[in-house]
Amino acid sequence: MFRDKIKVLDCTIRDGGLINDHDFDVRFVREVYKAVSAAGVDYMEIGYKNSKKLFPAKDFGIWKFCDDADIHKVIDGIPSKTKISVMVDVDRVDVDDVLPKKDSPVSMVRTACYVKDVDKAIHLANQFSAKGYETAVNLMAISRALDNELTECLHQLEEECRANVIYIVDSNGALYQETTEFLIKKAKSILKSKEVGIHAHNNQQLAFGNSIEAIIHNANYVDATVYGMGRAAGNCPLELMLGFLKNPKYDIRPILDLISKEFIPLREKLEWGYIIPYAIAGILDEHPRAAIALRESSEKENYREFYESLVGEVEE
Amino acid sequence: MFRDKIKVLDCTIRDGGLINDHDFDVRFVREVYKAVSAAGVDYMEIGYKNSKKLFPAKDFGIWKFCDDADIHKVIDGIPSKTKISVMVDVDRVDVDDVLPKKDSPVSMVRTACYVKDVDKAIHLANQFSAKGYETAVNLMAISRALDNELTECLHQLEEECRANVIYIVDSNGALYQETTEFLIKKAKSILKSKEVGIHAHNNQQLAFGNSIEAIIHNANYVDATVYGMGRAAGNCPLELMLGFLKNPKYDIRPILDLISKEFIPLREKLEWGYIIPYAIAGILDEHPRAAIALRESSEKENYREFYESLVGEVEE
Fold first, then answer.
1. B210 and A209: CB-CB below 8 Å?
2. Which CATH number does the domain A7-267 belong to among 3.40.1180.10, 3.20.20.70, 2.130.10.10, 3.30.70.100?
3. How high is the ipTM of this complex?
4. Closest chain A residue to B174 measured between Cα atoms?
5. Which of B1, B240, B267 to mutate to probe the A interface, most A CBs <10 Å?
6. Window from A275-279, B266-270, B312-316 with minimum mean pLDDT
7. Domain segments of chain B as ranges
């Protein structure tokens, strides 16, 4: 018996864009949109809304900015019930860049923040709600959040924020099932009027398992990416999530085709997935940035030295 | 607080041998033994005891037979507390090939069987127990076992079998956490006098997650392999399991070195891991043999056709 409330958000292009400065061509993104639409995926997150005042457009791919005109190039002419989502980071978005919902192809705006920045996120999310969008707040680096601060943050979101969904984001890929269960139950107990979501990273091959765990404990929004593509170790693979979910509206086959035709060749050019330095970062609950730097160096396979360098940094 | 009763069995060479007809050279196996010994791993399973009357020795690597003389070539001169395990299949072992424990470097003999063959497995395991070995029975293809037959099988094992450990084996890589929980709880409720173990396959990237799930529900024996090497999608990665377990006797670093030096180059020659046809087989709860055949064909990336071929076989 499936749970109709479960919504799958594909963030392949958005999270994958962190590997290549958001530089996917329109043809490729159209192929992804076609496939996730045919697969019955509920949302597709296509990139970030960043201010061009802060980031020169010439230095990045177009999905760092997600101009509505570029989104139209992707979606126009493709039959679809899949809604478009964009992500914003606090302090990096120009709210005026986001048109009222009625004038935009975007349906959902998700604001990403650390627990400490929740006031800024609430301020942003409420503005996007006022413009008519579905909104979400994605709480990043949740494995590093202190429990008392997370409690306060969740109460604030429940009381002050108009966002429909609050996501638990395991940026470090550090969570095991027991902590995932703890965090989802905690969020559900405070966020009485909202849905809870999960965005997992796959450093320890637990992105799918933790997403299932979150679903078991009544998270209804799950993020996934095609073939797990995403920064560093990547994310919960969409094909596995669709294979798991029982809602007959989902169809895994268009995603299988997409992987065969587009993602097997792409994986030769972009690196993501189960790679030991990312696993080490997950085990040690560290941000992947040091592991990403290692993978770009000549010492990319020196795992023990990398491990020692991280555990050696302990100070009283 | 760690649970002292948890024992980790490395089956890299045994399960990995299913990819290359058990043809690892002694130098390589010594490197694995050195590393798992230094890492504090409790057992290392080195291969199968198959009858040379059934399988001509010239057609296979030496780890299909595990002669004691070959085991000595691996372990002699290496300081270690890691015990050696061998696996036997029902109907494929000559019991007389297994010397009394006091004359052998082997500590544990594990008998693999399907639920339907449990009588044969009990008969074998009891003989190995009588020879002085620690013994286990590994119940394969558990996702296909009918509940009433599994119940009877577990009662028989509890009452008639001298094996110390009974393993739940997810041969198809089809289990999710909820069924893993169900099976481990069921086994624990019947096998009052024995330990319960888990051997997971990684088709759906759930081998580690399901092994954690089994540990949560009091399985104390867990199988893992270096870098997840094993047939098809492979197994629970040993490095992740050691990163998870809290017992200070375990040290992940020798395994990190071993992966850098031996397994990254090996992966260029042998294929295992997250590969879509194995994921499909797991999702559909099928044995990986059709997916293995596909990967050896020119149609290795034709995922949709492979999926259709499996779901098209449904008959009333």
1. yes
2. 3.20.20.70
3. 0.96
4. A244
5. B240
6. B312-316
7. 7-267, 276-311
